[in-house]
């Protein structure tokens, strides 16, 4: 391995880690969506467990976005000022996703022990909206900033990965 290859491997890590975090968050949302579907079908988790599952997902997504806003976006803006408009759009998306998560939590907090058509429809609507915005946001973000993240050299991120790169098991 030559020095150039080693540097390339090092530089691609942050973009790759972002993609891994997005895959993990997509899987978490898919699991939550499946659990809501099971509840609506009269099987699966009780509302209390759905709320806990939602809290876990929402906390992970919130941690990811707050980490991007506080750490990743300022670093990218510093080195790539031409991406500041993209970063502003992504921050707006973060606010919208936060609002959608609040709506989903409210609906899940109101779920009765046995599903009824009105609350079931609202739960499905909330999770569908959150999923649509989150997936669109991730695709846009991946297209626009992964290359910039791959080019960043931030030694402290390698030693202590920031929240936006973390994937919990």
TrEMBL record:
Entries under CDD domains matching the protein: Hr-like
Name assigned to this protein: Hemerythrin HHE cation binding domain-containing protein
Hemerythrin-like domain residues: 18-148
Source organism, top-level taxon: Bacteria
Pfam families assigned to the protein according to its UniProt record, in alphabetical order: Hemerythrin
UniProt xrefs under InterPro entries: Dimeric_xanthone_biosynth, Hemerythrin-like
